[in-house]
Write a structure and sequence with these properties.
The chain is α+β, with helices and mostly antiparallel strands. It has four domains: 6-22 and 90-179, Calcium-transporting ATPase, cytoplasmic transduction domain A (Distorted Sandwich); 201-274 and 629-844, Calcium-transporting ATPase, transmembrane domain (Up-down Bundle), CATH 1.20.1110; 291-301 and 489-619, Rossmann fold (3-Layer(aba) Sandwich), CATH 3.40.50; 306-485, Calcium-transporting ATPase, cytoplasmic domain N (3-Layer(aba) Sandwich). 50% of the residues lie in helices and 17% in strands. The chain has 32 helices and 25 strands. Strands 8-25-24-23-9-20-22-21 form an eight-stranded mixed sheet, with helices on both faces. An eight-stranded antiparallel sheet has the order 12-11-10-19-18-17-16-15. It is elongated and about 120 Å long. It is an enzyme of class 3 (hydrolase). GO terms for molecular function: ATP binding; ATP hydrolysis activity.
């Protein structure tokens, strides 16, 4: 066939468009930047800063608040842009080059210029550039796992359809292009993917809720302070100024910035542990995940067929090693060397084989069928290299494998004669061999045993032949059986055990057959008593029935992409936060539909990466556990910072209210315990560097021994409120105590400094919400030590520098004053340590 003319091809290109996947319309950079400031909390901060600057004339304070807001926005913008830049979109999934026939000549073109009607040529190793109908196929096998999830190669014959994005593993073919771009099956999945809306993460909901709650609190604080102050006869202007200061203090303006910084620091730690985060807030969602739905091939397994067992002369021989790296042993008895029969079996596996094993910079690769590749690796383990064997035993004829014959035979001229080597299905090879019925039964029994372990079984035979022998595949000598499997990844069993310990359920959702899926699930400790459901069974289930059994199912086998969506919907309906891992195009809709999508960085398609929130750069399921640990740590650090800040702000507010309610006479002599400028300064000190240092706290020992956070549980809980009120009340009492004792000229300075000291002790309390600081160690978080030291230094500056004393209403303090303030402030650490001890003791005995 001469194919299309170049002129006709160009005309069709104008009609049908380029052969590429169109991407979702992306937000402009300006909109991405502005979206960083849409939170209600951010709006309150900006208003508070402006009002504070106008009313209190504290322009520096307002500028610092606005800089924090700007810093938060810029950091979020940079992170989003960096993530988008790291992930190239769907276009790169298509084959970059394609071989077509134009004007009767074979030419190589950019795959984007392939058009419907083109005559497209396929060869081993090529990626299919468009959907096409085969008009000729020679022993053609394709890897359709990116579309179907099925790990086994698919044989194709003339008349079959071949799909864009699949890969030719073996043979040759040619066909007419029937669809390009978004009209292909690949494109339809990409289109369905774009139709799924992004959902906000729990943390996004929580930040918005806290912003609104704190906005209301700000108004209440202003109203209460103003009302009480005016009833007590305080000057209205001073009351208004103080109320504004307390309102600013009531809003923890560092919260958005510290949340962003905590997420960014966690992202950096995750990247060092081979997990790349595309969306910043997804880190937190992963930490609260209660179910992980994972694909099998290439995710839980190596994605590389590996020989596990050899049956030879009545013996079952184990083979070590994983994947295509030719490292491992054929485990014979210590005093036994490779015997003649085993040598022949290894030679048969290598010679009756069209694959090639290559060593590349990033490891060993197979060109061709993965099953044949596993046989080459086995031969290498036994000391036989295919290139050397091919030189010594030249192939002079071949009877190719077909789905009808279920066997393959090659004729090789070796140094000592001409031999026919065959491999294929056990029953077929046995029918060609000289064996008694009892011998055949023994072989079949062992083949069944290997198949029961989910091994794919191949049989081998050979015989000496003449060059013109017309009866090659009869009266052969049986050599043995080889059992292979796509083995679990190293460390995946331990990772799943850690998930179980952390209260996270792992499910396998695969396109593979139930026997293989169940065997892998049992081997890695995933499947015990859980049910196994197939795609056919899912088709018969209604939504209610699936929701009822969803939590009891461990393995879903022979499923389609739409089945995956159905399972995720059922789990989410049961209140779970669902993570989905995958690498193929077929996984993309489920990756986007799940609360958190995790794709594979090495074997994953670009469509899967584009749909995901997190990419595992090493394709290692174990990295998911590291990501979960970091996600939990990030949320814990955010909550701890919030509790710390809440207690600080409550303490300041209560202290001012106590002064109005109980210390009216002292106020008339000593002034307000905390003037407005001191409240703002404390707010800047305590909400500045220390909280950021808290966000650097590393994962605790027990963080992966706790159950997942409930979906409805946010940052602000009853426990957080309890600790915030108790510690805030303690801070107010400390300030009131110092206010009573201090000399009138020192009272404001000593209360001011005592609050700062108390809150610096308090920041150590919230390195962990449960563990004692004495167990963690005071010096193990170096950024926090630096933050506290810097805060104390800044406090000393406003106390002792003469030109700042007037602005901050401070005076110099004596050593005795410092001893008293430190002892009073230390009580914050002691009281919280006691509360943690009581809580831990109570939980131990319940």
């Amino acid at each position: 066939m001469s194919g299309l003319s170049q002129i006709e091809a160009e005309r069709r290109l104008e009609v049908y468009g380029r052969n590429e996947i169109t991407e979702e319309k992306r937000r402009s950079r300006l909109l991405i930047f502005l979206s960083q400031f849409k939170s209600f909390l951010i709006v309150i901060l900006i208003i508070a800063a402006v009002v504070s600057a106008v009313v209190t004339e504290e322009v520096t304070d307002a500028i610092i608040i606005l800089l924090i807001v700007l810093f938060s926005g810029v950091l979020g913008y940079i992170q989003e842009m960096r993530a988008e830049g790291a992930i190239q979109a769907l276009k790169r999934m298509a084959s970059p080059k394609a071989v077509v026939v134009r004007d009767g000549k074979e030419i190589e073109i950019d795959s984007t210029f392939v058009v419907p009607g083109d005559l497209l040529l396929l060869d081993t190793g090529s990626k299919v550039a468009a959907d096409m109908r085969l008009i000729r196929a020679v022993d053609l096998k394709l890897d359709e796992s990116p579309l179907t999830g099925e790990s086994e190669p698919v044989s194709k014959v003339a008349g079959d359809t071949v799909f864009m994005g699949t890969t030719v593993l073996h043979g040759r073919g040619e066909g007419i292009v029937t669809a390009t771009g978004m009209k292909t099956e690949f494109g339809k999945i990409a289109g369905a993917l774009q139709a799924i809306d992004d959902e906000e993460t729990p943390l996004q909901h929580e930040i918005d809720r806290l912003g609104k709650w704190l906005g209301v609190l700000t108004i209440i604080v202003c109203a209460v302070v103003a009302s009480v102050g005016l009833l007590r006869g305080a000057p209205p202007v001073e009351i208004f100024v103080l109320g504004i200061a307390l309102a600013v203090a009531a809003v923890p303006e560092a919260l958005p910035a510290v949340i962003t910084i905590a997420l960014a620091l966690g992202l950096r730690r995750m990247a060092s542990r081979n997990a790349l985060v595309r969306r910043l807030l997804s880190v937190e969602t992963l930490g609260s995940t209660s179910v992980i739905c994972t694909d099998k091939t290439g995710t839980l397994t190596e994605g590389e067929m590996t020989v596990r067992k050899i049956y030879l002369k009545g013996r079952m021989i184990e083979v070590t090693g994983v994947g295509y790296t030719p490292e491992g042993e054929i485990l014979l008895y210590e005093d036994e060397k490779l015997n003649h029969d085993l040598e022949l079996l290894l030679m048969a596996g290598s010679l009756c084989n069209n694959a090639h094993l290559r060593k590349e910079e990033d490891g060993w690769k197979i060109v061709g069928d993965s099953t044949e590749g596993a046989l080459l690796v086995l031969a290498e383990k036994g000391g036989f290299t295919k290139d050397l064997l091919d030189e010594k035993c030249e192939r002079i004829d071949e009877i190719p494998f077909s789905s009808e014959r279920k066997m393959m035979t090659t004729v090789n001229r070796c140094e000592n004669g001409v031999y026919a080597f065959s491999k294929g299905a056990c029953e077929v090879i046995l029918s060609c061999c000289r064996l008694s019925e009892s011998e055949k039964e023994e072989v079949l029994k062992n083949a069944a045993s290997m198949a029961g372990d989910a091994l794919r079984v191949l049989a081998f035979s050979y015989k000496s032949v003449k060059v013109d022998d017309s009866n090659l595949e009869s009266d052969m000598v049986f050599l043995g059986l080889v059992g292979m499997i796509d083995p679990p990844r190293e460390g995946v069993k331990k990772a799943i055990a850690r998930c179980r310990e952390a209260g996270i359920k792992t499910l396998m959702i695969t396109g593979d057959n139930p026997i293989t899926a169940t065997a892998i699930a049992r081997e890695i400790g995933m499947q015990d008593k859980g049910e196994i459901v197939t795609g056919a069974m899912l088709d018969l289930m209604g939504e209610d029935e699936l929701e009822r059994i969803a939590e009891d199912v461990t393995v879903y086998a022979r499923v389609s992409p739409f089945h995956k969506l159905k399972v995720i919907d059922a789990l989410k309906a049961r209140g779970h936060i669902v993570a989905m891992t995958g690498d193929g195009v077929n996984d993309a809709p489920a990756l986007k539909k799940a609360d958190i999508g995790i794709s594979m960085g090495i074997t994953g398609t670009d469509v899967a990466k584009e749909a995901s929130d997190i990419i595992l750069m090493d394709d290692n399921f174990s990295s998911i556990v590291a990501a979960v640990e970091e996600g939990r740590t990030i949320f814990r650090n955010i909550r701890n910072f919030f509790t710390y800040g809440l207690s600080c702000h409550i303490g300041e507010i209560l202290l001012v209210l106590f002064a109005f309610l109980f210390f009216e006479d002292l106020v008339s002599v000593k002034g307000f315990p905390l003037p407005a400028v001191q409240i703002l300064w404390i707010n800047l000190l305590t909400d500045g560097i220390p909280p950021i240092a808290l966000s650097t706290e590393r994962p605790g020992y027990n963080i992966m021994r706790e159950p997942p956070r409930r979906k409805e549980e946010g940052i602000f809980t009853r426990r957080v409120l309890f600790y915030g009120i108790v510690i805030g009340l303690l801070v107010a009492i400390q300030g009131s105590f110092i206010f009573h004792l201090a000399d009138p000229e020192k009272a404001q300075t000593m209360v001011f400094t005592t609050i700062v000291i108390s809150e610096m002790f308090n920041v150590f309390n919230w390195r962990s919400d449960k563990e004692s600081i004495f167990k963690l160690g005071f010096l193990t978080n170096k950024p926090l030590i630096l933050a506290v030291s810097s805060t104390i230094l800044l406090q000393l500056i406003v106390i002792y520098l003469p030109f700042l004393q007037g602005a901050f209403h401070t005076v110099g303090l004596d050593p005795g004053d410092w001893v008293l303030m430190i002892l009073v402030g230390l009580s914050t650490l002691v009281v919280v340590e006691w509360m943690k001890f009581v809580e831990k003791t109570r939980l131990t005995h319940t």
